[in-house]
Write a structure and sequence with these properties.
The chain has 20 helices and no strands. It is mainly alpha-helical and 428 residues long. InterPro entries: TPR-like_helical_dom_sf.
């Protein structure tokens, strides 16, 4: 199967240390923690606004490892967050002496200059200007992973604190749940009272990967919700749920059939794919998860919100259009092309990169079937553009800058309009 550029995902790391000396008696002292573990604890302190503890941890790390660049970066960020720009500048200068070829010292120096110019300005704007001033360096590497805010086991935290079905389902939408936990959710689906969550659960139970017993149980969950979903879809002005009902039980290798075409045409005429506010959805997820012990900042709020957007069906439609040739007449292929073009355009109106990419790819497939080369080229360029914007903006690696104020602004802007945020880091 030919791999397309929109199928990708990344990363994990691991390390350890051991030493012994036969000529020296063994010590009973507790071994020191690795410096990266202690530095990550300092990052946690900084996000918890315990700056004294963070500084103390960094000081101890630098006493033991004075050339440890990540520790110097964290020290500069701590001073920046506190508004101590002269101290931050001294650290940035020292870091440049330690690593003159590294891009991080240039970024820090530019960011300090921006904070001097606009001390009351937004961190997001300062970071964007600093990145351009530093020449938009590629910071997407694994050399500073210890500066990541430590990941939390959202599912385990929530599961240990509550049996509330909606809270547990919100946690499960962030990923990392077990087959047993998913089985519990399917057994308690009647406890989902929020209509948005019932919609999300209907899509959630469409996944085909996992043990046979779990896959079979998911079908029972879908069948339980299907009458309600069919009733909602019949009256809906949005195309997300009707499209899921049309395609949810099909395979990506299945040719599109003439029997499915009239319903797809009806769906394509609906005015919107879905009208949802990612910021509101994330606020609700954050309220639920934080009340159960999940600490901010955490991207689990974002993934929980994304889990309610019913994005499986567009991907399923795209797979079917790319992987299989339809047994349709030329007139039916034209009708299919028109419907897919319209539907793709509705989906591309979304404000997440996934929606823009899926919508543009569908428009490209629609144009192919319509014989519209100009439209195909336009849609292909839009798809390539969002991939390029995503690649360039990801070079900043915002998650590797331990600046709590910047992180909060970044997450809020990401939820408000991800595509617009990424564009600002591409076009000055």
């Amino acid at each position: 199967m030919k791999r397309t550029p929109w199928r990708f995902l990344a990363s994990l790391f691991l390390g350890g240390l051991l030493c012994a000396c036969a000529s020296v008696p063994k010590s009973s002292a507790t071994p020191r923690e690795p410096v990266d573990v202690r530095l990550q604890r300092a990052v946690t302190h900084s996000f918890a606004k315990k700056t004294d503890l963070a500084h103390a941890e960094v000081d101890r790390v630098l006493e033991e490892a004075p050339l440890y660049r990540s520790a110097w970066i964290l020290r500069a960020c701590l001073f920046l967050e506190e508004g101590k720009l002269d101290a931050a500048a001294r650290v940035a200068a020292h870091l440049r002496e330690l690593a003159p070829e590294d891009p991080e010292p240039r970024m820090l120096a530019a960011l300090i200059d921006q904070r001097r110019l606009r001390p009351q300005g937004r961190w997001l704007d300062a970071m964007r200007r600093a990145w351009f001033e530093a020449g938009r360096p590629n910071l997407d590497h694994n050399a500073r992973m210890e500066l990541l805010y430590p990941m939390q086991d959202t599912v385990a935290i929530v599961w240990a604190r509550t049996e509330d079905v909606e809270d547990r389902f919100t946690a499960a939408m962030t990923g990392g749940h077990s087959a047993e936990q998913e089985q519990w959710l399917m057994d308690h689906v009647s406890g989902l009272r929020d209509p948005v969550m019932r919609l999300a659960a209907f899509e959630f139970f469409h996944r085909a990967v996992g043990p046979h017993a779990v896959v079979a149980a998911r079908k029972r969950g879908r069948d339980l919700l299907r009458p309600e979903m069919a009733s909602l879809a019949a009256e809906s002005l949005h195309s997300d749920l009707p499209l899921l009902l049309l395609l949810g039980e099909t395979s990506g290798n299945t040719p599109f059939t003439r029997e499915e075409l009239p319903e797809l045409e009806r769906i394509a005429e609906l005015p919107r794919y879905r009208e949802t506010d990612m910021a509101r959805l994330s606020d609700e997820a954050q309220w639920r998860l934080e009340s159960r012990g999940v600490r901010y900042p955490d991207w689990s709020f974002y993934w929980a919100a994304m889990g309610t957007r019913l994005l499986r069906a567009p991907l399923e439609l795209l797979l079917r259009l790319e992987m299989a040739k339809e047994g349709l007449t030329p007139e039916e292929r034209l009708r299919l092309g028109v419907a897919v073009w319209k539907l793709g355009g509705r989906i591309a109106e979304g404000n997440t990169s996934f929606e823009v990419l899926m919508g543009s790819k569908l428009m490209e497939q629609g144009a192919l079937r319509k014989g519209d080369e100009a439209g195909r080229a336009l849609a292909a360029a839009a798809a390539q553009r969002i991939l390029e914007v995503s690649r360039v903006s990801s070079n900043l690696r915002p998650d590797l800058w331990p600046l709590p104020s910047f992180h909060r602004e970044w997450l809020e802007a990401h939820l408000d309009d991800e595509v617009r945020l990424m564009e600002t880091f591409v076009v000055r």
